[in-house]
Write a structure and sequence with these properties.
With 412 residues, the chain is mainly α. It has two domains: 178 residues, MFS general substrate transporter like domains (Growth Hormone, Chain: A, Up-down Bundle), CATH 1.20.1250.20; 198 residues, MFS general substrate transporter like domains (Growth Hormone, Chain: A, Up-down Bundle). Helices cover 82% and strands 0% of the residues. The protein is built from 17 helices and no strands. Helix 2 runs parallel beside helix 7, helix 5 runs antiparallel to helix 6 and helix 7 runs antiparallel to helix 12. The protein starts with a helix and ends in a 9-residue tail after the last helix. The relative contact order is 0.13.
């Protein structure tokens, strides 16, 4: 593994920690600022929307900057946002700090995916992307529970200060280890935007929204689901989320291993399996052991789609992948926000805390249908190109025949 990938992984670990640790610290933050829990929940929503907006915005603004320098600037922004959150005297400034930190999220993973893929041989690109995303998955196993523990024991401001320090380590690692990788000659914003004319790029992003949205439809409401349906205590929810993180870690390894060999079959298996498991979760959520096993599977199957979908966007946006890659990271968070909203709707309708699982199953199933559609279009394209080439050749042959001199008659 190139050491440069390690620097990217450290940055991803810090970003993953600050994204998810907020969920375990909401009660403390709400109490300190004297706001309600739903109001404190805006720190989650604001972060997700900041990722969606920041991914394309900062990538466009950094269009003329080398990728290494842009990664360093993004980590600097991440550090600034977390320090702002740690020191914020009121809730409004705390929310501002969260949004500032989130702006770096999408662009970092988007540009980082391009850089990671460029560090290795063509047949190992998905594995390199998965290595970087390992930082995000390990954050859910180590960073989030540790950050929650520190925040509850010492104070949540200490957690955000430590996350900012992690960002500094990532920044220094990128400066030292990532090679100078200037943008390809001729790379322009118009070329980056042109990638979005490719239906395959848009289909991959739609699969990202729906597929990972299916995961968050269930996981967003995991606490009330497990305490009310499965009978777990409040304290057990933290460790159930660690189990989810372990599933994400394993799924990421699986996705990175097989995406370079069989990308579309992997997507079929992961999305199809996710839809089935989420549907079964409505039943298994009522049994402690089965619920824990299902949470592990949801994490594994959901994150198994990340490396192949990110690689597919890079492949289909060949020549101008940076903006498309960053927007696809924003698509993950768009899916999170959409699924959380839909899950809240079915709970508010009185269908129970397990009802978001049906929403998740439907979203994952829709993503699977898009995967089949994408593959069908891809199979049709070569056939169309072959037919066009054959028609062109036939026309050329006819033209050649019509321009040839007439044969001389032979008399006997």
């Amino acid at each position: 593994m190139p050491l440069a990938l390690l620097a990217l992984t450290v940055g991803a670990f810090g970003i993953g920690t600050t994204e998810f640790v907020i969920m375990g610290l909401l009660p403390q933050i709400a109490a300190d600022y004297e706001v309600t829990i739903p109001t404190a929940g805006l720190l989650v929503t604001g972060y997700a929307l900041g990722v969606v907006i920041g991914a394309p915005l900062l990538t466009v603004l950094g269009n003329k900057v080398s990728r290494k320098r842009m990664l360093m600037l993004l980590m600097g922004l991440f550090v600034l946002g977390n320090l702002f959150s740690a020191l914020a005297p009121n809730f409004g400034l705390m929310l501002t700090g969260r949004i500032v930190a989130s702006l770096a999220h999408g662009s970092f993973f988007g540009i980082g995916s391009v850089v990671a893929a460029g560090l290795v041989a063509p047949d190992k690109k998905a594995g390199a992307i998965a290595t970087m995303f390992t930082g995000l998955t390990v954050a859910n196993i180590v960073g989030v529970p540790l950050g929650t523990f520190i925040g509850q024991a010492v104070g949540w401001r200490t957690t955000f200060a430590i996350v900012a320090a992690l960002g500094v380590v990532g920044l220094l690692g990128i400066a030292k280890l990532v090679p100078a990788m200037p943008r390809p000659e001729g790379a322009r914003l118009r070329g980056e935007l042109k990638a979005f004319r490719n239906p395959q790029v848009l289909l991959a992003m739609a699969m990202t929204v729906l597929g990972f949205g299916g995961v968050f439809a269930a996981i967003t409401y995991i606490a009330p689901m497990m305490t009310h349906a499965a009978g777990y205590s409040d304290g057990a929810v933290t460790w159930l989320l660690v189990l989810f993180g372990i599933g994400m870690f394993l799924g990421n390894l699986l996705g990175g291993r097989f995406a370079d060999r069989a990308l579309m079959p992997l997507l079929y298996a992961a999305l199809g399996g996710l839809a089935v498991v989420l549907a079964l979760f409505t039943v298994t959520a009522h049994h402690k052991v089965l619920a824990a096993l299902t949470i592990l599977l949801v994490g594994a199957l959901g994150f198994a789609t990340v490396p192949p979908l990110q690689k597919r966007v890079l492949d289909q946006a060949h020549g101008a992948p940076t903006l498309a890659s960053a927007v696809n990271i924003g698509a993950f968070n768009l899916g999170n926000a959409l699924a959380a909203w839909l899950g809240g709707l079915v709970i508010s309708a009185g269908l129970g805390f397990t009802s978001p699982n049906w929403v998740g199953a439907a979203l994952a199933g829709a993503a699977l249908l898009l995967a089949f559609w994408s593959a069908a279009l891809e199979r049709r394209a070569p056939a169309k190109d072959t037919a066009s080439a054959a028609a062109a050749q036939t026309g050329a042959d006819r033209a050649s025949a019509s321009s040839a001199p007439a044969p001389t008659p032979v008399h006997h």
